[in-house]
C-alpha cells in the first residue's frame, strides 16, 4: 500500500541542512526524483510520499537535529503506510547504519558519494519492505552528471570539484567528501552554457577548495583559466565562486577577476583566525601576513571589491593574545561581512581531542566582542556606498521584512544585500530582473535604496520566474528506474535502430 492515490504520481520533499554544496546536492536529488517520476509536494503538504533529509555533519548538534526531526515524522509515517524516509549527506556518510539503528522507521540511508543511487534504493526498500543502507567510499559518478532541478530562475550553482585535500584539524569534510575530484573544464562550461540557455544570469562556481581546481590534472592555473572562459559565454552576466583557500590563491586568479567583465568583484575567503599560532594548530597552511597580502593585491586590482570571510572563535589553546590578533586582522582587512562561529567539538576531528579546550563562557565573551568589531567595520564600509548607484539582481526570499515594508530585495554585483523601493515600477519588477538604484541608507548587514529606481531591465530569468518555470539541466542518462507505467517506446525509424 502506498500513500499516493491510485494512478497518482508519488510526491517528494527534500529538507536541506548545511553549506552551498548541500543546497546544490539537493537540487540534484530533486532532479533525480523528478526524472524517476516523482513530483514535488506542495509547501503545505505535511505527508509527502517521500521525505529526504540532506544532512550536514559540520554544525553543532547536527545529529540531535536530525533525530529530532525523524522523531516528529514517525507518527506521520505510522498513519500513512507506504511513506518513505531517506537520509543522505555528510551525517549519513559519517553515521551510516547507526541511523537505522536509532531510527528504524528510516527506509534509505545514502552517502555523499552515491546520490545517484537514491531512486534505486527507494524502489528496493519499497519492494523488500526493509531498510536500504548504501555508503560508498569514493564517487560513483560525478554529481554534476546527474539531472538537476534548479531552485532559482536567475542564479545557479555549478560544482567544479568535490572533496578536499586539506587536513584542517577542525573540519570533518575531507573524511566525508573524500579527496578532491576535478571536473574537466569542457564539462563545466557546457553546464554553465546550459544554464544560460535556460535564462540564468548568475553562476556560482562551487568547490570545497574551489581555487585548488586543476590539482587532479596537474594545471596550477586552471581556475584562473576557467574564470576567463566564463567571460566568453554570451548572456552570462555574473560569475562568483566559493570558497577559495588562501594557500592556493595565485596572482593569475586576481588578474582574471579584474580583467573578466562578468566576474564579480566579490571574494569570500575564510580567515578562521588571525593568530599564526592558532592557524598552525588548525593546520591552515598560511599565516596572517600571507592572508592580508592577498587582500592587498585584490584591492589594488579591484578597489571596489567586497571581501567576506569565516572566523572561528575559541579554538583549543587560543589565548587572549591570539584572539586580539584576530581582531587586529579584522580591523586591517575591512571585511564587508563575516560569518562568525564559536568553536565546538566535532567528533572525529583532531581538534576534538586537543588540550586547551576553552570554557564556553570564555568563547561566548570573545564571540560577542568579535561580532561588535565586525559590525562596526561592516557598517562603516557600507556607509561609504550611500549615494552610490548599484546594479541589483532581484531575488526571492532575501528580505524577510519586504512584505511589511513594501520593498523588494536583491544582491548588488559585489554581493551586498540591497532592499529597494520599486516606486512607480511596483508590480512590474520580477525576480531575475535587473534594477539600477541609488543607496540611501546603510546598516551593518544590508543597504536600503528608497528612491525611485533609475532603470529596470526585464530579463529571460524574470520571464521564467513570472511563468513559474524552474531551470532543469538533464545531466547524463544513467538508466535509472522510474515509478509508474513506463514511457511508450518510439517506433523504429530505420537504420541501426531497426535491428
Short structural description:
The chain has 15 helices and 23 strands. It is α/β, with parallel strands linked by helices and 499 residues long.
- Overall geometry: globular
The number of helical segments is 15
The percent of residues in helical segments reads 25-40%
The order of strands across the largest sheet is 20-21-18-17-16-19-22
Quaternary: single chain
Quantity of strands, as a count: 23
Largest sheet: 7 strands, mixed
Percent of residues in β-strands: 15-25%
Distance between the termini: 40 Å
What is the mean predicted local confidence, pLDDT?
86
Uncertain spans: 476-499
Describe this structure in words.
- With 499 residues, this protein is an alpha/beta fold.
- Helices cover 33% and strands 19% of the residues.
- The chain has 15 helices and 23 strands.
- It has a 7-stranded mixed β-sheet with strand order 20-21-18-17-16-19-22. A 6-stranded parallel β-sheet has the order 2-1-3-4-5-6, with helices on both faces. It has a 3-stranded parallel β-sheet with strand order 8-11-12, sandwiched between helices.
- Helix 8 packs parallel to helix 9 and helix 12 runs parallel beside helix 13.
- It is globular.
- The C terminus is likely disordered.
Amino acid at each position: 500500500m502506498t500513500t499516493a492515490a491510485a494512478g497518482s504520481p508519488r510526491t517528494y520533499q527534500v529538507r536541506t541542512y548545511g553549506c552551498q554544496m548541500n543546497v546544490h546536492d539537493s537540487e540534484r536529488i530533486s532532479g533525480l526524483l523528478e526524472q524517476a517520476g516523482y513530483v514535488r509536494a506542495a509547501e503545505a503538504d505535511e505527508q509527502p510520499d517521500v521525505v529526504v533529509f540532506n544532512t550536514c555533519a559540520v554544525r553543532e548538534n547536527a545529529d540531535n537535529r536530525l533525530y529530532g526531526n525523524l522523531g516528529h515524522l514517525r507518527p506521520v509515517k505510522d498513519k500513512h503506510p507506504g511513506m518513505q524516509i531517506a537520509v543522505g549527506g555528510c551525517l549519513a556518510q559519517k553515521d551510516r547504519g547507526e541511523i537505522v539503528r536509532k531510527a528504524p522507521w528510516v527506509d534509505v540511508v545514502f552517502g555523499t558519494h552515491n546520490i545517484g543511487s537514491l531512486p534505486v534504493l527507494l524502489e528496493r526498500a519499497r519492494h523488500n519492505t526493509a531498510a536500504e543502507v548504501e555508503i560508498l567510499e569514493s564517487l560513483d559518478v560525478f554529481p554534476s552528471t546527474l539531472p538537476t532541478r534548479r531552485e532559482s530562475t536567475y542564479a545557479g550553482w555549478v560544482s567544479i570539484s568535490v572533496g578536499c585535500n586539506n587536513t584542517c584539524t577542525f573540519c570533518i569534510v575531507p573524511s566525508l567528501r573524500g579527496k578532491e575530484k576535478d571536473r574537466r573544464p569542457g564539462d563545466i562550461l557546457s553546464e554553465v552554457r546550459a544554464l544560460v540557455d535556460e535564462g540564468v544570469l548568475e553562476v556560482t562556481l562551487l568547490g570545497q577548495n574551489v581555487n585548488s581546481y586543476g590539482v587532479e590534472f596537474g594545471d596550477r592555473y586552471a581556475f584562473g583559466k576557467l574564470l576567463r572562459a566564463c567571460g566568453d559565454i554570451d548572456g552570462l552576466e555574473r560569475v562568483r565562486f566559493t570558497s577559495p583557500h588562501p594557500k592556493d590563491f595565485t596572482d593569475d586568479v586576481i588578474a582574471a577577476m579584474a580583467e573578466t567583465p562578468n566576474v564579480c568583484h566579490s571574494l569570500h575567503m575564510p580567515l578562521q583566525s588571525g593568530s599564526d599560532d592558532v592557524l598552525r594548530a588548525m593546520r591552515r597552511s598560511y599565516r596572517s601576513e600571507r592572508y592580508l597580502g592577498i587582500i592587498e593585491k585584490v584591492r589594488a586590482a579591484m578597489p571596489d571589491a567586497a571581501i567576506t570571510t569565516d572566523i572561528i572563535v575559541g579554538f583549543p589553546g587560543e589565548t587572549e593574545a591570539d584572539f586580539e590578533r584576530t581582531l587586529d586582522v579584522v580591523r586591517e582587512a575591512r571585511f564587508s561581512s563575516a560569518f562568525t562561529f564559536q568553536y565546538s567539538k566535532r567528533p572525529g576531528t583532531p581538534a576534538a581531542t586537543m588540550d586547551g579546550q576553552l570554557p564556553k563562557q570564555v568563547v561566548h565573551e570573545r564571540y560577542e566582542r568579535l561580532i561588535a568589531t565586525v559590525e562596526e567595520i561592516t557598517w562603516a564600509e557600507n556607509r561609504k556606498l550611500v549615494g552610490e548607484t548599484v546594479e541589483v539582481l532581484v531575488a526571492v526570499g532575501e528580505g524577510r521584512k519586504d512584505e511589511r515594508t513594501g520593498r523588494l530585495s536583491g544582491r548588488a554585483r559585489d554581493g551586498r544585500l540591497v532592499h529597494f523601493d520599486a516606486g512607480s515600477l511596483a508590480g512590474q519588477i520580477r525576480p531575475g530582473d535587473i534594477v539600477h538604484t541609488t543607496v540611501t541608507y546603510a546598516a551593518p548587514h544590508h543597504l536600503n535604496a528608497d528612491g525611485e529606481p533609475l532603470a529596470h531591465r526585464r530579463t529571460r530569468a524574470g520571464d521564467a520566474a513570472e511563468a513559474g518555470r524552474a531551470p532543469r539541466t538533464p545531466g547524463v542518462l544513467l538508466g535509472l528506474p522510474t515509478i509508474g507505467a513506463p514511457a511508450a517506446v518510439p517506433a523504429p525509424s530505420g537504420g541501426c535502430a531497426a535491428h
